Every structure is written in C-alpha cells, then in structure tokens.
Amino acid sequence: MNAPTPTQDSRNSNSLSPNPAPGKPKLKITDYSIELILGYVLRTGVVLSAAIVLTGAAIFVIRHGHDPANYRVFRGEPSDLRTIPGVIRNATRGRGRGLMQLGLLVLIATPIARVVFSVAGFVLERDRLYVAFTLIVLTVLLYSLLGSGLTF
Amino acid sequence: MTNLTFTALVALVSLLAGLLGSLTGLGGGVVLVPLLTIFFHVDIRYAIGASLVSVIATSSGAAAAYVKEGFSNIRIGMFLEIATTIGAVLGAYLAKWIPTAALATIFGVMLLYSAYVSRRVRTQAQRNQPPDPLATRLRLNGTFPDLEGERSYNVQNVPTGFSMMFGAGALSGLLGIGSGAVKVLAMDQAMQIPFKVSTTTSNFMIGVTAAASAGVYLSRGYVDPALSMPVMLGVLAGSLIGSRILVKAETKSLRLVFSLVILVLGLQMLYQGLWGHI
Q1: How many angstroms separate the CA atoms of B64 and B59, rounded?
Q2: Which of A68, A75, A145 is nearest residue B215 as measured by Cβ atoms?
Q3: CA distance linking residue B194 with residue B9, whole number of Å
Q4: What H or E segment, with its residue span, contains residue B120?
C-alpha cells in the first residue's frame, strides 16, 4: 500500500501505530486531499509550460537550428524578454524565443500557484495556524517578485 | 557548434542534473552551473539563469510524483519555508556587506564535513524518539511509505531546524547556490526527519525559494529562452525518472548519492572561495 487512507489526520497522527484504523470515509478536507489537489495543480503547470516551451522550441529550431550557438558573452536579454507584458507581446507574434520564455514564466508561476492553493486548502481545513504560515510565505514571495521589476 | 547540437547536448546533461537533483533534494544547479560554464563556455550569468529554471523544473516535476506517493510533508515544508524565504530576502540585502568569498570557503568546509556525516544511517533507537511537544503542536509529525510499509516519524529539534532554514535562505540570497544542501541537512540531521521525507520536502521548498528570486534574474536578463529550453525539458524528464527511482531505492544508496553530490558542491565552494570566483 503506497498511500495512506484519506481519513482525518492519517498523514499527521502522532500515534506510533503505522496504520491508524481507517474510519468511515468522510467528505472532509485533509492534508492528503490537499496534497492530491496540489499534485494536480503542479502537473497541470508542468505539462502546460512544457507544451508552450516545446512549441517555441520547434519554431526556434526550424528558423535558427543551424546558426552557431554562442553564450560566451553576456549581453542580457532584450527588454521584451525581461518583463511579463513584453514576453506576452513577443509570444503572441509567434516568435520562438518569446514562446519559450512564456513557457518558462508558466513554469515559474507553478510553485507560486502551489502556495496559493495550499492557503485555500488550509482555509478549508480550518487550520488557522497554517493559513497564517502559508500567507506569510505568499507575502514574502509576492514582495520579492513585485519588487523585481518583472511586472513592468 | 550549431544551435541544434548545442540544444541536444545541453538537454542530455540536464537530464542527468534533473535525475540527481530529484534524488537528492538539491535541485539541478549543483551539476548544471559548472558543466555549462566549463564545457559549454556559457557566461556565468546565463548559467545562473538556466540553473534557476532547472531548480523550479526539478521541484515541480518531481513533486507532482512525490505528493501522490505521500513522501513530502507539506506542513514541514510550509512552516520551514517561512524561515527560508525571509532569510533569502535578507541575504540578498546583506550581500553588499558580507565578504562572499570567505563565506563560500566556510560553507565549503561545512559541506565536506556534512558529506561525511550524512552517510550514516540512523539506528532503530534513533528513529523511535518520543514526539517533541513543539512538533506536535505544529502538527509536523507524519507517516510515509517506507519499503516495508507505512512508517511514522516524530520531528525533533524544531527551533534548530528552523534557524538552519533561515541560514539556508540567507545563503541562497548571498551565494545564489547551496540552499538545497542546507535544507536537506537541517531536516535530516537536526530534525531527524526520515531521509526520503527530507529530500522530497526539500524538493518542494527549493521550487518556492527559486520562484521568489526568479523575478530578479528574469528582469536582469539572465534567463535566455534558447538556453533554458533544453535545460527545462531535460531536467523535467530527469526528475520524473528520478522520482520513480526514489520510491523503490534503499535509503542507504540515496545517502551515498547525496553525500557524493554535496562533496562536489563543497569542493566547488572551496574553489570559488579560495580563488575568488564569486
């Protein structure tokens, strides 16, 4: 058996018995159901970002596959690949580099979505302490993202 | 080298990085940055950008599998993430005043010692310690699917672990690397959390920490899409394979892989610290 039964607190019991007796199945939010939802969020984010990056990669390789690769000198990315509105503009024009960067943005957004969904999960679980904990993490995350100049 | 061959080779190397990263909870950067800079002649700033992408890809790719298997502990992760993210923000500010070369040297020595210590497997008596009241109050204790069936664990030394996580965050802000190693060590050595739970929970956490600093690197132009593309795709594939292996692997062999990777990381840190490449 590789998954604990989704009974209340089965993932967080302090009892030393390895398998707490499974009670009747309850329609209650538990850590385990939160984790299943988070797993789904993650998978969606990963598949979506990989699909966008692959599309961009195909365009890039067809157009520039035989150009020489050179990353010796740091030039920095052009401004429309450094901000969210710029990347979206670039991607909607069907440019390979823009699409790949958009896929990377979706990838970066995935862990943030994960924290957002955990806040929601702990709210449903009525675990005030962990709602507070996840909100602190989310605030620091958003603080450092918004302060970076990415959104302008 | 044309873009096509470059992409194929980088994807292959990234596959290995993702595999090691998901097995050890360290992310792919440890392997990727030196390989990209030394063998592919990539500028360090582009390499750092790509490494950041690789950390998030490892974290999300592997976590999707781990969460389903019930290894990572979301409460431990979220609680400790408070310390890590605040530490990272502070570390980025402190970078101006702290001599990073000296810090890298000290960190390197610490890692060499940890590489030695972390190979030891805990005894049965060490595993069955009574629950720590603070850990119980924070509901950190849990169970995970061990090879012989579901096993419960009691988290120890919460304040020490929390402080080490603060240090891990500050280090990632100061040195840009190595926070995964401190995370696993804090959970495994200080908090006595089972190794597989430590590495998988670290995997969850490094993704969140990396996402926090992604904005800065992206807006500075460090993230090149054509370089990050093969890194991301390769790392994703590698981390999926790695998470399959982890489920069935013996903790002893996972500890060996972990200790070898942090040995390499320690030597890297010493080199950068002593020769001032940081």
Answers
A1: 9
A2: A145
A3: 36
A4: none
Domain ranges of chain A: 31-146
B195–chain A Cβ distance below 8 A for any pair: no
How confident is chain B (278 residues) per 10-residue block, as mean pLDDT? 93 94 85 86 88 90 74 91 88 76 83 85 80 90 87 93 91 73 91 93 88 82 93 94 91 92 87 76
First-to-last alpha carbon distance for chain B, in angstroms, is 28
HEC per residue, A15-61: CCCCCCCCCCCCCCCCHHHHHHHHHHHHHHHHHHHHHHHHHHHHHHH
Q: How far apart are the C-alpha atoms of B33 and B52, rounded to whole Å?
A: 10
Kindly state whether A35 is in contact with chain B, defined as any CB-CB distance less than 8 angstroms: yes
Q: Which of A69, A96, A103 sits opposite B6 (nearest CB)?
A: A69
Q: Which residue has the tokens 């005894």?
A: B123
CB B192 within 8 A of CB B126: yes
B69 contact residues in A (CB cutoff 8 A): 2-3
Q: Do B41 and A71 touch (CB under 8 A)?
A: yes
How many CB atoms lie under 10 A from the CB of residue B180? 31
Q: Which conformational region is residue A94 in: left (phi greater than 0), alpha (psi within -120 to 50 degrees), or beta? A: left
Question: What angle in degrees, to the nearest 10, is found between the helix axes of B44-69 and B3-24?
Answer: 50
Q: For residue B45, count other CB atoms closer than 10 A to its CB.
A: 18
Q: Residue B61: which of B98, B28, B100, B101 has the closest Cα?
A: B28
| ipTM of the complex, rounded to two decimals | 0.88
What pLDDT, in 10s, does the model give residues B35-46? Answer: 898 889 998 889
In the DSSP assignment, the letter for residue B186 is I
